[in-house]
């Protein structure tokens, strides 16, 4: 049976939360909406309680200590509390479109399919948010991949190892997973990452699970872009940007070693990790570190991330 648990981390989202919840609650496929309130400083908790009182599908949880633990920990708690056969995610300032589960219902008839992903569009909620987003990312109408793919092709595509450019990202809002597959591989979000936990999770997921593209030529969900989006505030290749990318690829590299991921993938992940490691060094130490690393791994000078450290 196609029963979905929708997990929504909630932190200072009172302005958007009701629209987000209402976009999901009406689907027949949605068994439950799990709100994980993460010690908001606005009235999000009161709004969560109101929504729970209005619909039995909606459930509210907080962390045991009722403190703030971040989106990764909130999603992990949501996974633990979920009871649906399938799991989806939704950010509290985003919303689903009416076609959200159109492809899943058919694709999941194939038992080997463990996850389905699609495309999302962008809604600019504030002018400042629009300017910040467009200054850092291409002004595209869809966040999606470039062609249909499944299985290991998805993992290789996310690492940039396919002959055609696959695309480097698809959004959690457009991802549906078999709960049994998440549990079988003990997949969780890295709680040490305050940003990029989604990218980290998706790449690991694509390695361990058989994913297939669903609707990739039109949006199945909408991402709201506004002044408080953390990712848009970071200046590309600034020290903060490089630090956060370093933590992401360090997480990936540690995982690749631990799980004995094939060497060709380990090498690709290592080059990204090392590029941002070098970017955080300075002065003469940085100069000699680049020289030594380029002798050991000449391909590092050809990565798309080389300017993160060579031009600073």
UniProtKB/TrEMBL annotation:
GO molecular function list: hyaluronan synthase activity
Stored InterPro entries: Glyco_trans_2-like, Nucleotide-diphossugar_trans
Record Pfam families: Glycos_transf_2
EC number: 2.4.1.212
EC primary class: transferase
UniProt keyword terms in alphabetical order: Glycosyltransferase, Transferase
Superkingdom per UniProt: Bacteria
Chain ranges of the Glycosyltransferase 2-like domain: 5-132
PANTHER family xrefs: GLYCOSYLTRANSFERASE, UDP-GLCNAC:BETAGAL BETA-1,3-N-ACETYLGLUCOSAMINYLTRANSFERASE-LIKE PROTEIN 1
Protein's recorded name: Hyaluronan synthase
Species assigned in the record: Chryseobacterium fistulae
Lineage, opening ranks: Bacteria, Pseudomonadati, Bacteroidota, Flavobacteriia, Flavobacteriales
Gene designation per UniProt: hyaD_2
């Amino acid at each position: 049976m196609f029963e979905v648990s929708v997990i929504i981390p909630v932190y200072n989202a009172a302005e958007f939360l009701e629209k987000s919840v209402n976009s999901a609650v009406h689907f027949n496929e949605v068994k439950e909406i799990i709100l994980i309130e993460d010690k908001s400083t606005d009235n999000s908790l009161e709004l969560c309680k109101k929504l729970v009182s209005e619909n039995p599908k909606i459930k509210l949880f907080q962390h045991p200590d009722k403190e703030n633990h971040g989106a990764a920990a909130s999603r992990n708690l949501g996974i633990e509390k979920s009871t649906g056969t399938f799991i989806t995610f939704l950010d509290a300032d985003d919303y689903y479109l009416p076609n959200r589960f159109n492809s899943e219902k058919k694709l999941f008839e194939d038992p080997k399919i463990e996850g389905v992903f699609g495309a999302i569009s962008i809604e600019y909620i504030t002018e400042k948010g629009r300017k910040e987003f467009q200054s850092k990312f291409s002004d595209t109408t869809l966040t999606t991949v470039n062609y249909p793919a499944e299985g290991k092709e998805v993992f290789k595509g996310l690492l940039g190892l396919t002959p055609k450019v696959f695309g480097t990202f698809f959004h959690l809002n457009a991802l549906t997973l078999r709960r049994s597959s998440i549990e079988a591989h003990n997949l969780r979000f890295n709680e040490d990452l305050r940003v990029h936990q989604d990218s980290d999770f998706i790449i690991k997921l694509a390695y361990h699970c058989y994913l297939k593209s669903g609707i990739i030529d039109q949006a199945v969900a909408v991402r709201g872009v506004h002044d408080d989006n953390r990712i848009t505030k970071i200046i590309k290749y600034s020290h903060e940007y490089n630090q956060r990318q370093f933590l992401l690829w360090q997480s990936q590299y540690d995982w690749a070693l631990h799980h004995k991921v094939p060497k060709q993938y380990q090498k690709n992940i290592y080059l990204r990790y090392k590029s941002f490691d070098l970017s955080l060094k300075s002065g003469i130490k940085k100069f000699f570190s680049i020289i030594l690393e380029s002798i050991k791994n000449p391909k590092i000078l050809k990565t798309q991330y080389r300017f993160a450290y060579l031009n600073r």
